Amino acid sequence: MPKDALTWMNPLPLSGADAWNSPNPRKKRTVYTTRTSDSAYRQSSRGFSIQIFSIKVLSTRAELLAIYRPSVAPSFSTTSISSTCDSRGPRGLTVDIVMDESTGPSRRSAKIGHRKSRKGCKCCKRRRVKCDETHPVCGNCSRLTLDCAWPDVASRPTPSPDPVSLSSRSTDSGEITKSQDSPASNKLERFFALLRPQNDQQLYPLLDDNEDIELPESKERRLLEHRLMQNYLQAVVQPFPMSPNREWRRLFSHVMTKLALTHDNLLYALLTVSASHLLLTEPDDMELFSARQSYLILAMREQRKMVERLSVDTADAVCFTSLLLLINSFSMLRDRSLEEYHPPLEWIHIGRGAGTVIWLSVEAAHKSGDFESSSMYVIAKSYPRFGEDQSYFSPVMREGFEGILTQALPSGEVWDDATKEAYEKTLSYVGSVHNAIRVGEPVYAICRRIQAFPLLMPAKFITFLEEQRPRALTVLAHFFAVVVQVHGVWWLREGEDGESTAKREVRAISKVLPPEWKALLVWPLEMVGLR
After folding, report:
1. What residues have CB less than 8 Å from 521, skipping those under 6 apart?
2. 8-state DSSP, 454
3. What whole-number distance in Å separates Cα of residue 518 and Cα of residue 522?
4. pLDDT interval class at 253 (50, 70, 90)
5. Cross-strand partners of 86
6. Which of 159-168, 175-184, 460-469 has the highest mean pLDDT?
7. Contact at 8 Å (CB) between 392 and 47?
8. Most buried among 173, 301, 416, 497, by the most CB within 10 A?
9. Strands 95-96, 56-57: parallel, antiparallel or unpaired by DSSP?
10. What crossing angle do the helices spanning 470-483 and 459-466 adopt, rounded to 10°?
């Protein structure tokens, strides 16, 4: 197919389209041809699935406002927030947590003999593409007619000499330090295997110490925080529909609120989630909207600090903060602009980063030798018990979804083994969540499965989403068609107008898909009430 015939599906520069047509030289190409049928959208499967989390906060507070409430322009205080760039990528208020070098939205897997650019221009680093480091204008910027700017070498901060890593041990003081020992091989190890980071990179970019986003102490702030905490205790204290597990219920109603008194990251996360809940019924309250953005930024900043000095004593608070931030990130999808559709990559990266942080927290508690008495153990052993097998990736789970894998429709994709596996695994997981709904699992268990989606999708599938490949968008539409079947959960944002997050996403996807792919959206459109 001519390359220009694919430009409708590729929002990136031409290099993105070139990547579609570049076969992997280390993979044998196997082409599978299937046909659609009347049963292509009937869902029938059995099994169960998994949970895990993560997140990405945008570069500045202003960017948060622009994306999640573009039609509103609240007034700010005199606090100024800026974003700079260093050798490791965006700084300022950017918090980018990744599982490995391939989990970013446009990063490709490291190749044998491939050398990364360390002194590239700011534009290439912002776009996360390799820079050829040609001065004064690099090849990418010259080809795309972009403004090529270079970082000041003298101003680059020195990286932390000993970031938090996977292989670690507890000292007498409770701090987590480096070790060559690997975690014990047991059920808990397998349970959290999918959360484990694959390298020792620093989990959070450094924030500029000169950026002051602290809220001023005042009577108004005290009243606002009292209002938010009261709302949390009365209405948000159980973000999941009630679990029959008494210990699980106690985590949210007693343990978290008590820990928040001594851990700012958790306190700010509680206030952020409470503000998001209140905005459901008071969407025009500018005080609430501004407070949510401020507390979200503060929560991410304090979380970054806490992870850098992770200890046994702080592991529970770090884990709970990641969980709350993931809930909040899905809730905020309801407020983002969909006029020019882009997949919800911020939520996906938040989920993957939170999963990494949770693993480090679990390991800290596990190294202490007293993991079973920690609060995280309650989550780990609650139903569904994720990670004990991978039945959610079983082919039987995607029965009825096979039509999406058809090669009869134009896609411009090289259907190699890695591409096929990425789609099959993601489809199987979506099918496993749908099956859990079909067999009548409790709503709280379904919610945990929904939260697991960002982490469990293959990294290659995230790349496909960023490139807005029609097949990847179709899979995403099916995921939201499953989500829309869950009712009574506030952070899934089922508004009084019937415009749930899932319905908005499916409608937006249907508008950007080419006509030949829209036949595969019959079932998602029916599920969200658009047919």
Report:
1. 474, 477, 506, 509, 510, 513
2. H
3. 7
4. confident
5. 89
6. 460-469
7. yes
8. 301
9. antiparallel
10. 110
Range from 240-244, 433-437, 512-516 carrying the lowest mean pLDDT: 240-244
Q: What is the pTM of this model?
A: 0.63
- Is 490 in contact with 280 (CB distance < 8 Å)? yes
* 410: exposed, middle or buried (Cβ count in 10 Å: 0-12, 13-18, 19+): middle
E strand or H helix that includes residue 180: none
Tokens of 364: 């800290």
Q: Which of 324, 323, 310 is nearest to 277 (CA)?
A: 324
- Residue 108 CA to its chain's centroid (Å): 18
Spatial distance between the Cα atoms of 132 and 148, rounded to a whole number of angstroms: 12
Closest-CA residue to 429 (of 36, 44, 32, 48): 48
pLDDT tens-place string over residues 290-315: 999 999 999 999 999 998 888 888 88
What is the distance, to the nearest Å, from the Cα of residue 415 to the centroid of all Cα atoms in its chain?
A: 26
Q: DSSP of 241-272, one letter per residue?
A: SPPS-HHHHHIIIIIHHHHHTT-HHHHHHHHH
Closest to 106 in 3D by CA, of 123, 130, 138? 130
User: What are the backbone dihedrals phi and psi of residue 311, each rounded to the nearest 5 degrees, phi first?
Assistant: -140, 170
SS3 96: strand
What are residue 177's DSSP bridge partners? 169
CA–CA dist 473, 309 (Å, integer):
39
**What angle do helix axes 286-308 and 61-68 make, rounded to 10 degrees?**
130
For residue 135, which amino acid is it?
A: H
Half-sphere exposure of 62 (CA within 13 A, CB side): 9
35: exposed, middle or buried (C-beta count within 10 Å: 0-12, 13-18, 19+)? exposed
Instruction: Give yes or no for a contact between 64 and 328, defined as CB atoms under 8 angstroms apart.
Output: no
- Domain parsing of the chain, residue ranges: 26-51+388-527, 56-79+205-381
The answer to whether the CB of 9 falls within 8 A of the CB of 514 is yes
Please state whether 518 falls in left (phi above 0), alpha (psi between -120 and 50) or beta.
Answer: alpha
Strands 168-170 and 176-178 turn out to be antiparallel
- Rounded to an integer, the average pLDDT of 464-480 is 96
Residue 328's closest CA among 299, 302, 366, 287?
299
Give the mean pLDDT of the chain: 70
- Gap between the Cα atoms of 373 and 375, Å rounded: 7
CA distances from 226 to 221, 255, 266, 303, 413 (A): 8, 19, 16, 22, 53
Cβ distance 522 to 510 under 8 Å? no
Q: Which residues are CB-contacts of 426 (< 8 A; sequence separation ≥ 6)?
A: 457, 458, 461, 475
| Element at 95 (helix H, strand E) | strand 95-96
Place of tokens 């709350």: 324
Q: Which residue has the tokens 């139903």?
A: 383
Q: Which among 54, 17, 40, 64 has a CA at the least distance from the CA of 298?
A: 64
CA distances, 21 to each of 24, 414, 418 (Å)? 9, 6, 14
